[in-house]
Amino acid sequence: MLRIPFNKERVSRPRETSLVAISRRSRLLAALLGIGLLTALVLASRLTPDARGWGTHEQLGLPRCTLLAATGLRCPACGMTTSWSYVTHGQWANAFKTHVAGTLLAPVAAVVSLAAMALAARGKTWRLNENVVVGVVVAATGLIVCEWIVRVMAG
């Protein structure tokens, strides 16, 4: 009789799936995030970028930047809508001149929008490392603040 040696240490367990189900609440929040970001990009595409480099949001009936009106200094977000509008019109050079961080965030918003809506539809996601998510948010915020400091110092 032929004996086949069996070493139980070599037998591997079936791998756990890397996908985890998410709650209905999380799916709803993902859908709202995706729709919100997509709406912002569509709105930006419908606006005419303001030649000043800021103020494009006024076409939506929103007021002028309070900090700009009160001090003459543009706030950290001044030019963000204009840069998104330039990006959606394919005018990348003008977008970068207007607001570097905004220009970089526009395609990120497009990707996050699609990913969030896919997550909402599918109901499952990969396990996310919270440190990575926090790192991306801190990096984006840092970029916006650094750009603002440079803008203020340049006058």
Strand content: under 5%
* SS summary, helix count: 6
Oligomer: single chain
* Major β-sheet profile: 2 strands, antiparallel
Mean pLDDT: 87
Q: Widest sheet: strand order?
A: 1-2
Q: Can you tell me the number of structural domains?
A: 1
Helical percentage: 55-70%
Rg, Å, rounded: 23 Å
* SSE run: EHHHHHEH
Q: What distance separates the N and C termini?
A: 90 Å
Shape: elongated
Number of strands: 2
Give an overview in words.
The chain has helices spanning 24-46, 66-71, 80-88, 92-98, 100-122, 130-154; strands at 19-21, 124-126. The chain is mostly helical. The protein has one domain. It has a two-stranded antiparallel sheet with strand order 1-2. The N and C termini lie far apart (90 Å). The mean pLDDT is 87.
Kindly summarize this structure in a few lines.
The chain is mainly alpha-helical. Helix content is 60%, strand content 4%. It has one domain (23-50, 70-154).
Blueprint of the fold:
Layout: E1 19-21, H1 24-46, H2 66-71, H3 80-88, H4 92-98, H5 100-122, E2 124-126, H6 130-154
Antiparallel strand pairs: 1-2
Helix pairs in contact: 1-3, 1-5, 3-4, 3-5, 4-5, 5-6
List the keywords.
155 residues, single chain, elongated, mainly alpha, two-stranded antiparallel sheet, 60% helix
